[in-house]
Amino acid sequence: MTDAVNQRIADIVNSNDVVLFMKGTPLFPQCGFSSRAIAILDHLGVGYETVDVLQDQLIRQGIKGFSDWPTIPQLYVKGEFVGGSDIMMEMYEAGELQQLMSESGVAPAS
User: Fold this and answer.
1) Given a cut of 60, is residue 102 above it in pLDDT?
2) CA–CA separation, 86 vs 102, rounded Å?
3) pTM to 2 decimals?
């Protein structure tokens, strides 16, 4: 992975409170895991950005090394890697994802 790709990913992660690297878009997720991740974020009512990794192969490969996590989607909150859709679901069901958003000062969706 190139430094340029790493820097692009870091810029995206650090310039958004909540960012989801996913397959597809929020309106047209291209896999069930991405769809579930969007549903969780929508339920939380927080503002978030998404990156469609299917549109950029460098980002698609680079994000896996950036987080040291092999699968997509990947959620970042305030610059920190949280996990994929399974971890998001577990945290959501336990109330931990809501707590993380609240404690991190993530703004509600406008």
Assistant:
1) yes
2) 20
3) 0.95
